[in-house]
Protein backbone atom coordinates (compact mmCIF):
# COMPACT_ATOMS: atom_id res chain seq x y z
CA UNK A 1 0.00 0.00 0.00
CA UNK A 2 1.22 3.55 -0.77
CA UNK A 3 2.24 6.22 1.67
CA UNK A 4 -0.41 8.13 3.60
CA UNK A 5 -1.31 11.55 2.15
CA UNK A 6 0.24 14.42 4.09
CA UNK A 7 -1.93 17.26 5.30
CA UNK A 8 -1.10 20.86 4.41
CA UNK A 9 0.08 21.29 7.99
CA UNK A 10 2.52 18.38 7.73
CA UNK A 11 3.78 19.64 4.38
CA UNK A 12 4.37 23.10 5.84
CA UNK A 13 6.51 21.55 8.58
CA UNK A 14 8.48 19.52 6.01
CA UNK A 15 9.26 22.64 3.96
CA UNK A 16 10.32 24.55 7.11
CA UNK A 17 12.58 21.65 8.12
CA UNK A 18 14.11 21.62 4.62
CA UNK A 19 14.84 25.35 4.80
CA UNK A 20 16.36 24.93 8.27
CA UNK A 21 18.55 22.05 7.07
CA UNK A 22 19.80 24.15 4.15
CA UNK A 23 20.50 27.12 6.45
CA UNK A 24 22.44 24.85 8.81
CA UNK A 25 24.47 23.45 5.91
CA UNK A 26 25.11 26.94 4.52
CA UNK A 27 26.28 28.18 7.92
CA UNK A 28 28.47 25.11 8.44
CA UNK A 29 30.06 25.67 5.04
CA UNK A 30 30.75 29.32 5.93
CA UNK A 31 32.38 28.16 9.18
CA UNK A 32 34.53 25.66 7.26
CA UNK A 33 35.73 28.44 4.99
CA UNK A 34 33.83 27.04 2.02
CA UNK A 35 35.62 27.89 -1.20
CA UNK A 36 32.63 27.44 -3.46
CA UNK A 37 31.70 30.11 -5.89
CA UNK A 38 29.50 33.04 -5.10
CA UNK A 39 27.01 31.44 -7.49
CA UNK A 40 26.86 28.32 -5.27
CA UNK A 41 25.99 30.45 -2.24
CA UNK A 42 23.43 32.42 -4.21
CA UNK A 43 21.80 29.19 -5.41
CA UNK A 44 21.64 27.89 -1.84
CA UNK A 45 20.15 31.19 -0.60
CA UNK A 46 17.61 31.07 -3.43
CA UNK A 47 16.63 27.52 -2.48
CA UNK A 48 16.16 28.59 1.16
CA UNK A 49 13.94 31.51 0.11
CA UNK A 50 11.88 29.20 -2.13
CA UNK A 51 11.35 26.69 0.69
CA UNK A 52 10.39 29.46 3.12
CA UNK A 53 7.95 30.94 0.57
CA UNK A 54 6.32 27.55 0.07
CA UNK A 55 6.06 27.05 3.84
CA UNK A 56 4.30 30.44 4.15
CA UNK A 57 1.91 29.52 1.33
CA UNK A 58 1.11 26.20 3.01
CA UNK A 59 0.50 27.98 6.32
CA UNK A 60 -2.09 30.16 4.55
CA UNK A 61 -3.69 27.01 3.12
CA UNK A 62 -3.99 25.54 6.61
CA UNK A 63 -5.76 28.65 7.89
CA UNK A 64 -7.91 29.52 4.89
CA UNK A 65 -8.67 26.40 2.83
CA UNK A 66 -11.07 23.56 3.47
CA UNK A 67 -9.85 20.04 4.23
CA UNK A 68 -6.45 21.18 5.43
CA UNK A 69 -6.19 18.94 8.54
CA UNK A 70 -6.01 15.15 8.63
CA UNK A 71 -8.11 12.88 10.88
CA UNK A 72 -4.98 12.15 12.95
CA UNK A 73 -4.47 15.86 13.52
CA UNK A 74 -8.11 16.44 14.43
CA UNK A 75 -7.84 13.70 17.07
CA UNK A 76 -5.21 15.77 18.95
CA UNK A 77 -7.60 18.64 19.71
CA UNK A 78 -9.90 19.56 22.58
CA UNK A 79 -13.61 19.00 21.93
CA UNK A 80 -14.29 22.67 21.10
CA UNK A 81 -11.24 22.96 18.84
CA UNK A 82 -12.15 19.70 17.08
CA UNK A 83 -15.74 20.90 16.59
CA UNK A 84 -14.60 24.11 14.91
CA UNK A 85 -11.81 22.37 12.97
CA UNK A 86 -14.25 19.76 11.64
CA UNK A 87 -16.66 22.50 10.59
CA UNK A 88 -13.72 24.33 9.00
CA UNK A 89 -13.24 21.34 6.71
CA UNK A 90 -16.54 22.34 5.02
CA UNK A 91 -17.46 25.90 5.99
CA UNK A 92 -15.91 29.36 6.10
CA UNK A 93 -15.47 31.23 9.39
CA UNK A 94 -18.64 33.30 8.95
CA UNK A 95 -20.72 30.16 8.42
CA UNK A 96 -19.12 28.44 11.42
CA UNK A 97 -19.92 31.49 13.53
CA UNK A 98 -23.57 31.34 12.46
CA UNK A 99 -23.82 27.60 13.17
CA UNK A 100 -22.27 27.89 16.64
CA UNK A 101 -23.60 31.30 17.61
CA UNK A 102 -20.15 32.87 18.00
CA UNK A 103 -18.33 35.65 16.18
CA UNK A 104 -16.29 34.87 13.05
CA UNK A 105 -13.28 36.30 14.88
CA UNK A 106 -13.74 33.76 17.70
CA UNK A 107 -14.11 30.92 15.19
CA UNK A 108 -10.88 31.99 13.49
CA UNK A 109 -9.05 32.39 16.82
CA UNK A 110 -10.09 28.93 18.08
CA UNK A 111 -9.11 27.32 14.76
CA UNK A 112 -5.76 29.15 14.74
CA UNK A 113 -5.11 27.96 18.31
CA UNK A 114 -6.04 24.41 17.27
CA UNK A 115 -3.45 24.49 14.47
CA UNK A 116 -0.80 25.76 16.93
CA UNK A 117 -1.70 22.96 19.36
CA UNK A 118 -1.40 20.35 16.60
CA UNK A 119 2.04 21.64 15.64
CA UNK A 120 3.17 21.69 19.28
CA UNK A 121 2.01 18.12 19.90
CA UNK A 122 3.62 16.91 16.67
CA UNK A 123 6.89 18.60 17.63
CA UNK A 124 6.75 17.05 21.11
CA UNK A 125 6.14 13.59 19.66
CA UNK A 126 8.94 14.01 17.13
CA UNK A 127 11.40 15.09 19.85
CA UNK A 128 10.02 12.41 22.23
CA UNK A 129 8.96 15.04 24.77
CA UNK A 130 6.17 13.88 27.10
CA UNK A 131 2.89 15.70 26.53
CA UNK A 132 1.68 18.05 29.25
CA UNK A 133 4.96 19.78 30.07
CA UNK A 134 5.30 23.55 30.33
CA UNK A 135 7.78 25.25 27.96
CA UNK A 136 10.35 25.46 30.80
CA UNK A 137 9.82 21.80 31.69
CA UNK A 138 10.33 20.87 28.02
CA UNK A 139 13.67 22.71 28.04
CA UNK A 140 14.72 21.03 31.28
CA UNK A 141 13.60 17.60 30.03
CA UNK A 142 15.56 17.93 26.78
CA UNK A 143 18.73 19.13 28.52
CA UNK A 144 18.47 16.47 31.24
CA UNK A 145 17.93 13.76 28.64
CA UNK A 146 21.17 14.96 26.98
CA UNK A 147 22.99 14.13 30.22
CA UNK A 148 23.19 17.62 31.68
CA UNK A 149 23.19 17.98 35.48
CA UNK A 150 20.65 20.23 37.26
CA UNK A 151 23.29 22.91 37.97
CA UNK A 152 24.32 22.99 34.28
CA UNK A 153 20.68 23.20 33.22
CA UNK A 154 20.06 26.05 35.67
CA UNK A 155 22.97 28.02 34.19
CA UNK A 156 21.82 27.38 30.62
CA UNK A 157 18.21 28.46 31.13
CA UNK A 158 18.87 31.15 33.73
CA UNK A 159 17.13 29.79 36.81
CA UNK A 160 18.13 28.25 40.15
CA UNK A 161 19.26 24.63 40.48
CA UNK A 162 16.53 24.23 43.13
CA UNK A 163 13.90 25.17 40.54
CA UNK A 164 15.42 22.70 38.07
CA UNK A 165 15.33 19.93 40.68
CA UNK A 166 11.71 20.73 41.51
CA UNK A 167 10.76 20.76 37.82
CA UNK A 168 12.55 17.41 37.28
CA UNK A 169 10.50 15.97 40.14
CA UNK A 170 7.29 17.21 38.50
CA UNK A 171 8.42 15.87 35.11
CA UNK A 172 9.01 12.40 36.63
CA UNK A 173 5.41 12.41 37.89
CA UNK A 174 4.16 13.21 34.37
CA UNK A 175 6.34 10.64 32.60
CA UNK A 176 4.68 7.32 31.84
CA UNK A 177 6.42 4.46 33.65
CA UNK A 178 7.75 3.13 30.33
CA UNK A 179 9.67 6.37 29.65
CA UNK A 180 11.38 6.58 33.04
CA UNK A 181 13.95 3.87 32.27
Automatic annotation (TrEMBL):
Signal peptide span: none
UniProt superkingdom: Bacteria
Domain RNA polymerase sigma factor 70 region 4 type: 133-174
InterPro entries the record matches: RNA_pol_sigma70_r4_t2, RNA_pol_sigma_r3/r4-like, Sig_transdc_resp-reg_C-effctor, WH-like_DNA-bd_sf
Gene3D superfamilies found in the cross-reference section: Winged helix-like DNA-binding domain superfamily/Winged helix DNA-binding domain
One GO biological process term: DNA-templated transcription initiation
GO MF annotations in UniProt: DNA binding; sigma factor activity
Protein's name in the database: Sigma-70-like protein
Organism, scientific name: Thermosediminibacter litoriperuensis
Amino acid sequence: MGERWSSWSEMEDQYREGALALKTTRDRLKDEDFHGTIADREIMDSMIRDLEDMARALKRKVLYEFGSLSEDELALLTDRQRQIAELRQRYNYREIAEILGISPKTAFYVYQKAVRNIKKIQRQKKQKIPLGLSPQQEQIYLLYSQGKKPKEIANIIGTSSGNVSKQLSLIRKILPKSQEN
